Amino acid sequence: MDFNMELLIWIAYLGAALLVILGLKFLYSTMAEIRNIGATEKKKDDAVPEASDAANALAAAESVIVIPGYGMAIAQAQHKVWELTRVLQEKGVRVSFAINPVAGRMPGHMDILLAEAGVPYDVIYDLENINDQFPTCDVALLIGANDIVNPAARDDDSSPIYGMPILDADKSRNVIIIKRGQGSGFSGIENPLFSEDNTRMCYGDAKDEVQKLITDIQSL
Ligand code: NAP
């Protein structure tokens, strides 16, 4: 074999070795890319926001009492509230509705809205039939309600609403209040219930906030 032929064979060997190295490198980078995609997807999964405190408290409750007020009427949230009720019932939560006779802006206001949404009568209770159930209730869920749950009407004889019938939501283990902000109710007075330790405020329009609760509870 002359020198040129030997050189050609060596060049062929080197070329083959180079091809093998390049092939391995390509294989390695492709696999790393696949691993990265997996990691990114896992990161995306990890970034899914956790359900809110309020959603966790509702889903873990044995009994929930829903108190609708004027804000539910303003937001037209009654259908969403009934949807939330069914989601909770599917999780085994006992849900009742409590009606204050002066809730809303006309007699029977809440009854009309709940009937329109299809809430059955056997889960709707008048004030005198439900007030003694609050101390054993896990969560009182207030939807745009304010004056009708203001403890000042029961406890503070200097309050302008003293003597007005109220639902004793403050006596339940947890209170979740949906309203848009710090706005007062029809009476224009403050509500000490909003700053109690067992109260969680969910600020926003009632329909939107109830939808958020539904989504969160369904994700649990
Ligand atoms: P309320 O005391 O008037 O309180 C309603 C609350 O709903 C407000 O504090 C408001 O707070 C919130 N709200 C308004 N729009 C909302 C929205 N889109 N989403 C979520 N929250 C919203 O109502 P109530 O507790 O039903 O009490 C009724 C009052 O009306 C009583 O004082 C009663 O005496 C009086 N009243 C009743 C009648 C009747 O026949 N039923 C008649 C006349 C007067 P934000 O602004 O912070 O959201």
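qc> The longest strand covers residues 63-68.
qc> done
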